[in-house]
C-alpha cells in the first residue's frame, strides 16, 4: 500500500472512531434524561421505576381533586379506565385542568399508587388528546370490553 493511501485510510478510520464515540456519548446522555411514558395500569403493575422521572397520563377522575386551603398543594386521581393512581402536586395547575379530562403528569413515584408530580400538562383544546393518552385509553377500553364480554359469557350458563 502506498504511503498516501495509508494516510487516507488512517484519516478515515480516525474520523469513524471519533464519530462513533460522539454518537455513543450522545445516546448515553439522552438515556439519562429521556422520560418514559407509563399508563396507570403499568405503574400499578410495577413496570415503572420508583426513583426515576417518568410521565403518567390518563383521565382525571371526577370528584377526586382535593385542594389545600392554605397552599397550592393539590391531590387528584388519574385513571386509564382500569387502574387509578394518585397524583400530588404543589404548584399552580394549568388553566385547562379539569376533572374528566386527559392530563399528563411528570414526576417520581412515591409508591405504586402515588406520583409526586413536578409538572402537570393539560390538553389545550377540546379535540386534542396527547397520542400516548389516546392510545392508552383505546387499549384500556378494548381490554375492558373484552373483560366484560368474558364475564357475561360466563354468567349465561348459571341461569
Radius of gyration: 24 Å
Broad shape: elongated
Percentage of β-strand residues: 25-35%
**Count of beta strands:** 7
The H-and-E topology, N to C, reads as: HEHEEEEEEH
CA distance, first residue to last residue: 89 Å
Spatial ordering of strands, largest sheet: 2-4-5-7-6
| Number of discrete helical segments | 3
Task: Flag low-confidence runs.
Answer: none
Which structural class fits the helix and strand makeup? alpha+beta
**Major sheet size, sense and barrel closure:** 5 strands, mixed, barrel
Helix percent reads: 25-40%
The pLDDT mean sits at: 85
Architecture overview:
It is elongated and about 80 Å long. The chain is of the alpha+beta class and 159 residues long. It has helices spanning 3-33, 40-44, 131-155, and strands at 36-38, 54-60, 66-67, 74-79, 84-89, 102-111, 114-122. 38% of the residues lie in helices and 27% in strands. The protein has 3 helices and 7 strands; from the N terminus they run αβαββββββα.
Summary tags:
159 residues; alpha+beta; five-stranded mixed barrel; 3 helices; 7 strands; 38% helix; elongated
Amino acid at each position: 500500500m502506498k504511503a498516501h493511501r495509508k494516510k487516507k485510510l488512517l484519516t478515515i478510520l480516525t474520523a469513524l472512531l471519533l464519530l462513533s464515540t460522539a454518537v455513543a456519548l450522545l445516546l448515553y446522555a439522552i438515556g439519562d434524561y429521556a422520560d418514559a411514558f407509563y399508563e396507570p395500569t403499568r405503574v400499578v403493575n410495577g413496570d415503572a421505576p420508583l426513583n426515576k422521572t417518568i410521565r403518567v397520563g390518563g383521565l382525571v377522575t371526577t370528584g377526586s381533586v382535593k385542594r389545600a386551603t392554605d397552599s397550592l398543594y393539590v391531590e387528584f386521581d388519574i385513571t386509564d379506565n382500569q387502574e387509578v393512581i394518585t397524583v400530588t402536586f404543589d404548584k399552580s395547575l394549568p388553566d385547562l385542568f379539569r376533572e374528566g379530562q386527559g392530563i399528563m403528569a411528570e414526576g417520581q413515584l412515591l409508591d405504586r399508587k402515588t406520583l409526586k408530580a413536578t409538572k402537570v400538562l393539560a390538553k389545550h383544546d377540546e379535540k386534542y388528546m396527547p397520542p400516548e393518552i389516546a392510545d392508552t385509553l383505546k387499549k384500556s377500553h378494548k381490554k375492558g370490553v373484552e373483560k366484560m364480554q368474558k364475564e357475561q359469557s360466563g354468567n349465561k350458563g348459571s341461569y
